[in-house]
Amino acid sequence: MPLILDGRYVIEKPIARGGFGITYLARDRRTPAMKRCVVKQLILDGLDREQIRIAKKLFYTEGAVLEELGTHPQIPDLLAFFELEVDGDSFLYLVQEYIDGITLEKLLKDFGPFPEADIREVLGKLLPVLQFIHDRHSIHRDIKPANIMIHRHTQVYYLIDFGAVKQIRHITDPSNYQSTGVYTPGYAAPEQVRCQGVFPATDIYGLGATCITLLTGKEPDELTDGWHNYAPHVSSAFANILDKMTKTSLQERYSSAEQVLADLGKLQPQT
User: Fold this and answer.
1) Angle formed by the axes of helices 116-135 and 257-264, to 10°?
2) pLDDT tens-place string over residues 161-191
3) Is the entire prediction scored with pTM above 0.85?
């Protein structure tokens, strides 16, 4: 890959690889301070024709959705989206705002399980972001500790990695709920795993499973006998909210972020 992309973005180092792409830390040479940014490159090596089709579709969808959703202060801005020819091969690139932060996955690994008060804060800060996304007929589909970041200085929570995002333009029509099997096991709702569609409640499940992992320090597949015994000091009222967020049945689960926020607001403050 060229060290300078589109005559503008200077690649510094790779920072992550997963799914169909590699993410790099870069600098924008057209800004006075060589501002940092994040460049995601779509990688198609070793994929068959159908896999390439799916990968390109997801990548274009991510770019289109980020252009709209990046207007939210807790979602990284989309800075550029372009295709380059390199040695006869075509490559797709997506450039986003750089967030100087740390993921909740890393915080859990470094410091252990979160107290209830911190999990309440996570929910209070992220549920409005989910409502913003759902109001624009999109579903994130991959909410987990690795995709939530907190800024090192401002303490603002960010929702990142929209590579699996699903757009549902006619959200009242069930025929539009078809979903490909892109998810993280343990954090994906049952209907998503069965490819029966994705809904706002699907993201609610992922956020609930994320909170339970942060509370217990256990991955979802380690909680086959339930999670309550691993977090005995959690208040029963808050536990009930997490249980309802992660109900197997769509009908029994919260259907919107607003509903969760309403119940969260009824909780007694912790002393």
Assistant:
1) 150
2) 876 555 554 334 444 444 445 678 889 999 9
3) yes
**3-state SS, one letter per residue, for 72-136:** CCCCCCEEEEEEEEECCEEEEEEEEECCCEEEHHHHHHHHCCCCHHHHHHHHHHHHHHHHHHHHC
Catalytic residue among 142, 161, 203, 243: 142
- Picking from 140, 261, 122, the residue whose alpha carbon sits closest to that of residue 200 is 140
Structure tokens at 257: 């972020």
Active site residue 221: no
- List, for residues 43-71, the tens digit of each pLDDT value: 777 778 887 787 788 778 778 888 888 78
Give the Cα separation of 271 and 269 in Å (integer): 6
The Cα 78–Cα 146 span in angstroms is 20
- Residue entry with tokens 């025929």: 175
Instruction: Answer yes or no: are the C-beta atoms of 17 and 30 closer than 8 Å.
Output: no
How crowded is the C-beta side of 18, counted as CA atoms within 13 Å?
A: 12
Contact 147, 159 (CB under 8 A): yes
